[in-house]
Amino acid sequence: MSGVNFVATLRLGHWLWVGYLFVWAWSVPLLAFDLVPAGGEFMATLMLVVPGGLAAWWLVQRYGRMGWLSTGIIGIGSWLTEHLGVSTGWPFGAYQYNGVLLPEIVGVVPLAIPFAWLLVVPGALELSRALMPKAGFWPRVLGAASLAMLFDLVIEPVAVYINRYWTWLESGPIFGIPTANFVAWWALALILAFATEALCRTPINQPAEHTSLTLPIAIYLLNLALFTIVNLTHQQLAAGTLGLLLLAGFGWRLQQQQTRWHWKYDQLTN
């Protein structure tokens, strides 16, 4: 990447990040207190597409062609799996989307869903690396899969019972959601994190620092915080408490690692 293109990329990414933080800050009270105005449903798609796109942008900036390949694997792999899930009920269990997240790819899976996976998988993998800086390949990948599944445990009550993004056609013991969903989330995240960790090992720009917060981690934590707050304000206390415990635990562990906390885009991309 030439110097001019790199600077232009940083500038565009910076304004996307600033715009996302602005919308995120407004979304917290609007979603928490049911103040979303009529016709504002498109924001649900935007709040998944933008952070997912930023995480993909980070992968490409950091790893070049391998970042592009990893982004494609996450996006296409998650879309195909979700399409299979809606069409057959496997591997997640039987569910259907309710037309809140639009547009839909070939009328089945919302476009926002692959971007949601792009939000979660790089964030979970980067967070796994930060939490276990001396761990090897497999502990990092297994950690990323587990962090992705924990993220899903927090977002499911919001998506199903509050925002009604999708409806489960069968039930289960965890929040009334099939256990297969969480098992499938872990398994799919494991596959996608494995591919990303295998491909994205040599940065083309500045090397990753274990003591520095990165953009995917910031996006993961911001969304975890958002869904935690919405759970708590809508009496989804189990999921909300889990979110609080996760945020506290991550914060404590990152602090123990002497992680540098910052929110400027150019620092988050280094």
TrEMBL record:
UniProt name for this protein: Carotenoid biosynthesis protein
InterPro entries per the UniProt record, alphabetical: CruF-like
Membrane-traversing stretches: 12-36, 42-60, 67-85, 105-125, 137-162, 182-200, 212-230, 236-254
UniProt entry keywords in alphabetical sequence: Membrane, Transmembrane, Transmembrane helix
Taxonomic path: Bacteria, Bacillati, Chloroflexota, Chloroflexia, Herpetosiphonales
Record-linked Pfam families: Caroten_synth
